Known about the structure:
4 helices, Alpha-Beta Plaits, rod-shaped, single chain, alpha+beta
Amino acid sequence: MLGGVDNKLFFMSLAGFPAVLFLIFMLKWTSARGKSVVASAPKQGREDEYGTLVAVASPLNHIEGEMLRQKLVAVGIRATLTQTKDGPRLFVFPNEESAARAHLRSAN
């Protein structure tokens, strides 16, 4: 006993402060602007703004593009269909570009 106070009860009453401080810091971290851990909404770009991917087809609509993509996937070519500012585009990696173009020409 310290000064007539039960030490165990005194320290137990202080145990909640670190937990509350931890929750305050977590709330500040998760609600900070510009530092979100949640992915932002994807943005449309021009067809040259997609990194190393190369556009191999310009379908008229998304349905036609998905059909072309499925043809490439069926022969083992990794392809991505995305909506650009210029319309839907079918992208492949540069090392598969010539094979994809040849397969799309032969499929038509």
